[in-house]
Amino acid sequence: MALEGTLSKWVNVMKGWQTRWFVLEPEISLLSYYTSREKMMKGVRRGCVRLRGAVIGIDDQDVNTFTITVDHKTFHFQARDGEERERWVRHLEDTIARSTYKYRGCYDASQTLLSMGGSSSSKNNYLMMFDKKVSEADTYLQMMIDQTTKIEQRINALENEGDRAKYDTLIIQANEMLDHIKHSIVLLQIAKNTANPINGVYMGPMKTDPDDTATPVQVPETSYSSSEGEDDFYDANDDAFSSQLTTPTSNNRTITEPPSRLSDDPFVSADDNLSTNTSTPTSLKKQESIESPIKDVGYRKRNSKSLPLRHDGSLDYDAIYEDESDSDLSMESHGSVITHLLSQVKIGMDLTKVVLPTFILERRSLLEMYADYFAHPDLFIKIVEHKDPRDRMIQVVKWYLSAYHAGRKSAVAKKPYNPIVGEIFRCHWNIPEYESKDNSQVVTEGPVPWCKSDQLTFIAEQVSHHPPISAFYAEHYNKRISFSAHVWTKSKFLGLSIGVHNIGTGTVTLCDLNEEYILTFPNGYGRSILSVPWIELGGNVTIKCPKTGYHAEIDFLTKPFYGGKRNKIQGEIYAPNEKKSFLSIYGEWSGLMEAKWNDGSKSKPEVFVDVNRIPIYKKQVRSVLEQDENESRRVWKEVTAGLKANDIEAATTAKFKVEQKQRDEAKVRKDGNIAWINKNFKNAGDEWIYSNPLSHRLTLEQR
C-alpha cells in the first residue's frame, strides 16, 4: 500500500533535522523524498532509500524516531508522534517483507546456478523446492503464532477459573509445538547452507514484463541523498559496517558480503549483513579443527582433549566455567541463521518465545550473572558502617553504580542461559578486611549453609518460567546487612536493537537500624546487531529510604545517534523533603564517575567511584561435582562444555535436553494437578521475597 506524507530527516550536525515530503512506493520497494510536495509533483527527487534487504530500527527511549539501514548507511527519521511513527514503520515492514518473498525464488535459482556452474538442473530444482517449502513453513509458523496468541487471549478472558484451567493444556501443547517448529526450521536452514554454501553473485531484483521477459526493475543502484551539501549521518564511529565488503556485479550493482574470519569462537548475539531477506544467506564456510574436519555450519570445532581435564580423565567443568576467555566475532559468519530468526519477528514483538541459536549464548546462567551485583562486596558492606543516614544513602548509590560493569564479560553482547524453573545458583565471597577469627561460625540457616558468618553469601532461584522471573538474595551475617530482589525480564525486538526491560525491585536491609533502601533496575539494550553488537543500559532508576526520607534519581543515558559517549549516567541525591539535590553524580558506569556537592560544602568535583581502579572480588562456587541437580552450573555443564569446545551441535543438543526435561516435568505436574512450589522464595503480592531472611532470623534469636 502506497503512503506519502511529511517526516523529518536527520541531515548532519550542522543542519540537524530537516522536513521532507516522503513517498513510499511498495511496488518497487523504494522510499523517495523531496524538499516539498510541490517538488514531488514536479518529479524533483532529493534522495531515496531502497527497501529490499533493509532493516527498520526503533528505540523505545524515543517514541518519535526510527531508522532504515541499507546500502552501508543508516538513515534517521522523525515522525510527529508515536502513532505516526507506528504507521510508517508498519508500512515499511510490509514493503520489505513483500519484496523479500517476491524475489526469493528468482534469487535462489540464480545463486544456485552460479554456484553449480549450471551443471545440474536436478539439484537446482531440489533447492528451489526446498526454499519454497521453508518459505511456506515460515508463513504457516507466523499464522500459528498469531492463532495461538488469539486463543491465549480468549482463554485469559474467561471469568471462570475452572474453565481457564481446562484449556491450559492446549496452550502448553501449542507453545511446545511452536518451539519444535522454530527449532526445526532453523536446523533445515543450517542444513541447506552446509550442503550448498552460496558464493555466487546476486544479480538484483527482477520483474516480469507482459511478454514474460525478465528485466531489471528500474530503481536506483543504491540509496542516496542529493549532493547539495546534504551529507547523511550514519554510525561510522560505531564501526557498524567497517568490516563489510562490497562486490561489484556484472550490472554495476553491489552486494554486501562478509569478510573471511579467522578467529575461533564465532558466538555473539546479532544478525547479518544488512539484510532481513531469508533467501539471501551468508556463505558459511567449512573450517577444519586442529585434528579433524567437521560439518557443523562453518564453526571450527576443537577436540575435547583441548578442554581441561581432571586427574581421572573426566572433564573439569569447574575450570571450564572459570575460564572467561573468548575470541569475539561479528555475526557475519552466522548471518543466515539470525536472518531467519529475524524473519519471525516484527518491531516491538516480545522475544520471550522466540528460539535463539545456541552460538549466541554466554557460558553461564542468568542467575549467575545476577551475582555480579556483588563484584565489589566491600562497597556493599560499608553501607552499614556509616553513622549518618546521608552518608549511608551515598554509599548505597556508590555500591549500586559500581555493580554493572563487572556483568559484561565481553565487549560483545551475548545472552546468558534462560534459567529453568526451580534452578538455583549459590556462591559466596571472602572479604579479607572483614574476616574475623573470633566471631566466625557456620551459618547453617543462611542461603549457603556451609558458609561462615564473616562471608557474603548469595542465592538465586528461577521462581517462574512464564513470565520469566528470577529472585535473588545476599547477606552478611556479622554486619547484619542483606539484599533481596526479583526481576522479570521482558525482551522486545527494536529492529536494529534488542531491548530488555527489567521489571522488579531490590531492597537493601540494615537489620540493626530497621532501615530499607528500595531500588529499581535499568533496562538493557543490545545495539548494532548488524555487525558487532554491544550492550548499553538505559532508563531512570530510583533509590528510596522510606524511614529516613533520603532518595536518589539516576538516569542511565543511552548513546545519542549524532555523537556522545556510551555508558553515561547522571544522578541526583536528595535530602528529606528537599527539591534541590545536595549531590550530583555524572560520568560512566563502566569507568570514572564524579560527584559535585551542591550544598557548598566542597567547591570542586571529586571522584565518586572509578570502577576500573577498585578490585573485583572473585565469587567462590562449590564444585559442579558437589552441586545439587538443580544448581545452575550442573544443569548447564554440557552446554557450557560444548560452547567452550566450539562444538555447536553438541551444545545445541545438550540445551534441548535441558529444556525438554523442563517441558516433560511441567506436563507431569499439569496432568497430576500438582502445583509448583519454590524452595527458597515465596510470592508476596507483586513481589518475591526470600523465605528465611536475616532480619527474620535475628528477630527470632532475640526472643
TrEMBL record:
InterPro entries with a match to the protein in the record: OSBP_sf, Oxysterol-bd, Oxysterol-bd_CS, PH-like_dom_sf, PH_domain
SUPFAM superfamilies named among the record's database cross-references: Oxysterol-binding protein-like, PH domain-like
CDD domains the record matches: PH_ORP9
Domain of life: Eukaryota
GO cellular component, one term: cytosol
UniProt biased composition (Acidic residues): 228-238
GO terms, biological process: lipid transport
Gene Ontology molecular functions: sterol binding
Biased composition (Low complexity): 273-284
Keyword terms: Lipid transport, Lipid-binding, Transport
Protein name, as recorded: Oxysterol-binding protein
